């Protein structure tokens, strides 16, 4: 039976995950599994995995790596008691040679012995902290997608992985910019502190009202645009590498982990761990 | 000409690195290149590199990865303007099949196209911060090596890499334990907050006065033993994996990077970066 977002918001992670796993829920995860770390997903052939891990290590702000599966093992045992990456994300995008070919709600038939699944931190974590501190985030209050831009900040390349840093933008009251910076800096697993504050042109963005992804937001007087590295970066970088196969989460449809979003490290103690 | 430690302590990183590179200095690096991140080193064949990166991701406290070279490229371009890992560490240990076979001051003749160099954060960084905050660290004040112990805390395995977490211990005044925890937590690239505070038996250590590595230290009244994850862990874990070749720094003889030890991320902007 299809579950509604409002019903699942009231329940614990076990119920949410069971619903996602069974196909009973296939929509976005913002606000679900409260206070748990959510993650971007990238599944690629092992052949490219070492370079991708190097890419994440070299670009920790856009690509905060929080989990890496064993090759061919779909169980992400460091992120949850029971996470099967073939079924536990509400919706997936399948790319072949860099082209989106399909969106699906489970990938059991695509999983093979040579795939590696990577989980990367996402902005939900620090947005949650900003909201708790009384910041109003327009895109959330108005139920649209945060505006994202291709910046002139180049990532540090590794193997076939290279390209511009994609940034997300939030308008912050001038007098609270410093506070927003400090709050987000506490979450290195969720992009950390901003990569730029102020003039968009300084990082190659000519028109704030024309984002490359997401929706345009108002620019009220007394507010400053603040730019954070964005999880779309690794997706764009892997797409341009045109791997034979790439599986990602569908934007907004994240992996919900068992890790508290304030955890110092993204690792849980797990009795099911291979020994 | 051999340079003395006291002479190099007064000079900048360029001079220190030039002396190390030329073989003019081959001793320990504590206190050199002040305020720069120092690193543990592990060089292994590419065949094992993906599992080692997974191991570091799964065990970020003992193994805070701060740099990974391209396969076969000895230039660590994310950690410095000019770091050549074949010459820029004062002394190296060479292991074959898990056995120490030689200590050398440069590895130009051992470097091959299939090697990958990894740099991992070390405790110098948070010790420096503790000292700045007025903590007296007995092992430093008395010029001995911090006591280290094999604990009962198991690492999360990856491929051939597995084994106990090695911890280092510092006696901290009871009333300042919380402060020491908070200070070290600010340095996730240097082992972060302690893994245990108090009773050694709780993490499998039966006799504090008999460390597995380093020197025994006094246990004054009113002090609590505080245990941090230690950079010896990856070395012990790689040794037990008995790889055909492993090259590490000689203990205490670290790689000095160009990265400030308070940096949010361990990446420098580098004009020499491959594109």
Automatic annotation (TrEMBL), chains A, B:
InterPro entries: D-Glu_cyclase, Putative_hydro-lyase, UPF0317. It holds the Pfam family D-Glu_cyclase. Its EC number is 4.2.1.-. It comes from the Bacteria. Keywords: Lyase. SUPFAM superfamilies: PSTPO5379-like. Gene3D superfamilies: PSTPO5379-like, PSTPO5379-like domain. Belongs to the D-glutamate cyclase family. This is Putative hydro-lyase M0H32_12645. The lineage of its organism: Bacteria, Pseudomonadati, Pseudomonadota, Alphaproteobacteria, Hyphomicrobiales.
